[in-house]
Specification:
Layout: E1 10-15, E2 18-23, H1 25-55, H2 68-80, H3 96-102, H4 108-121, H5 123-139, H6 143-155, H7 160-180, H8 186-191, H9 199-209, H10 214-236, H11 241-250, H12 252-264, H13 275-283
Antiparallel strand pairs: 1-2
Length: 294
C-alpha cells in the first residue's frame, strides 16, 4: 500500500478477521461508526425472526397425534356416554328383565343373540337413525328438520315404558348439558325442538352444538347402549364380569355395522323387526317383581 502523505496518521482497524487501513482521525472515526452501524443492523435483522418466533403463539402440542379439537371431542363423548353420567340409564333394561323371567335370555349366548337383534334390527338401529338425523339438522341450522326429527323420534316407541325410558334419559341429558356443558347456540337449538327430546335426539343435537363429528358420536352412543343393556343382563341372569365382557366383545362388529347403516339411512328407512323385544317392553308393565323401570 502507498505510504501516507506527510502529517497524516495511519490507522489500522481489524474487524471480522480483516485489517482496514484509513488515513486520518476523521476517517478513522467514520469507519468505526460505519462498522458499528453495520453490526447493529446485522444483529437487528438476526433478532427479528427470533422475536417473532418467541412472541408468536405456539401451536398446540399434538396429543398422540390428535388435534386440540379432537381431544376435546373425545373427552366430552367419553364423559357424556359414561355409565357414571347421571341420565339414569342403570334403572332401565329395555324389556330385558321380562325376557329373563320368560326364559328367552338365560346365559351369555342368549343375551348376545338378543342384543345383536335389538342393535341391528330394533331400537338400536332406530335410535342411531334419529341421532344421525338430529345431528345433521342441528349442524346445518335446519330448524324445521330438527323439529320433525324430534317429534317423530318421540312417537316412534313401541310401549309406554320405552317412552318413559327414552324421554327421561333425554330430558336428563339436556338438563345436564345446559348446566355443565353449555355452548353458543345450544339453547336456541333446544328451543327449536318444540317438545319432548328423547335420548338419541338429545345426544345428536348437543354433540352438533359442540362441533363433535357425527361418526364418533354415533359409534360411541351405540357402544354405550349395548354396554348398558349388558349391565342389566349381568344383574338379572346373572353373569360374571368376564362373561359380560365377552358379550360386549362379540357385539363389536354389530355395533360398527349398525352405526354405518344408520349414518347412510334416511327417515324412510326406519323400521323394527324385533317383535319379541317389543312384546317384552309391553309385558314388563305388568310384571309382578321388577328391578328396572322398563
Amino acid at each position: 500500500m502507498p505510504a501516507p502523505a506527510t502529517g497524516m496518521t495511519t490507522t489500522r482497524i481489524t474487524t471480522m478477521g480483516t485489517t482496514i487501513t484509513r488515513i486520518g482521525i476523521t476517517h478513522t472515526i467514520m469507519i468505526i461508526i460505519t462498522i458499528m452501524m453495520s453490526m447493529a443492523s446485522t444483529n437487528t435483522i438476526t433478532a427479528i425472526p427470533m422475536l417473532m418466533t418467541t412472541n408468536s403463539p405456539e401451536p398446540a402440542a399434538p396429543s398422540g397425534g390428535m388435534t386440540e379439537r379432537e381431544v376435546a371431542a373425545l373427552y366430552r363423548l367419553m364423559t357424556w356416554l359414561s355409565p357414571s353420567f347421571p341420565v339414569g340409564g342403570f334403572s332401565f333394561s329395555s324389556g330385558i328383565e321380562w325376557a329373563v323371567e320368560a326364559g328367552d335370555i338365560a346365559d351369555a349366548a342368549s343375551l348376545r343373540d338378543w342384543l345383536a337383534a335389538m342393535l341391528a334390527d330394533g331400537s338400536g338401529f332406530c335410535d342411531g337413525v334419529f341421532l344421525a338425523q338430529a345431528h345433521r339438522a342441528a349442524a346445518a341450522d335446519d330448524d324445521a328438520a330438527l323439529r320433525d326429527v324430534a317429534e317423530l323420534a318421540a312417537a316412534f316407541v313401541p310401549s309406554r315404558e320405552r317412552q318413559l325410558e327414552t324421554s327421561a334419559q333425554g330430558r336428563a341429558f339436556i338438563e345436564i348439558a345446559r348446566a355443565a356443558w353449555s355452548c353458543d347456540g345450544l339453547e336456541r337449538t333446544i328451543a327449536h325442538c318444540d317438545g319432548p327430546i328423547v335420548y338419541p335426539v338429545a345426544v345428536g343435537l348437543v354433540s352438533a352444538a359442540h362441533d363433535i363429528p357425527l361418526a364418533p358420536t354415533l359409534h360411541g352412543y351405540l357402544h354405550a347402549l349395548a354396554a348398558n343393556w349388558i349391565s342389566a343382563g349381568s344383574r338379572l341372569i346373572p353373569l360374571g364380569q368376564t362373561d359380560s365382557q365377552r358379550v360386549l366383545a362379540a357385539l363389536e362388529r354389530v355395533v360398527a355395522a349398525t352405526a354405518d347403516r344408520a349414518m347412510a339411512a334416511t327417515l324412510d328407512d326406519l323400521g323394527s323387526a324385533t317383535f319379541r323385544a317389543d312384546l317384552a317392553s309391553l309385558r314388563h308393565e305388568t310384571q309382578y317383581t321388577r328391578l328396572f323401570r322398563s
